[in-house]
Amino acid sequence: MIEKIEVSMTSGDIHNFRRGEFGVESIEIDELRGIIQISYGNKEGGKKYVLIPLQNVEKCEYLDKEHVSATASTVGTKIES
Fold first, then answer.
1. Is residue 70 scored above 50 in pLDDT?
2. 33: pLDDT strictly greater than 70
3. Does domain 2-68 have CATH number 2.30.30?
């Protein structure tokens, strides 16, 4: 699951999205449909989506939590009883 993303547009604009910030629930890249989809939580009786066409994206950097190794972030501690 994508935790955060920075999208540089061909127009020069840069957009940053992070799960949990400003109501962002999920971030997905759909290569078949050619979009980046940002989903927000329910607000004012509906759910908000932001769709960014990949053809307008110059560069995209993101952090994918599924590919982070659990052992890389675990600190080893020896406990003796």
1. no
2. yes
3. yes
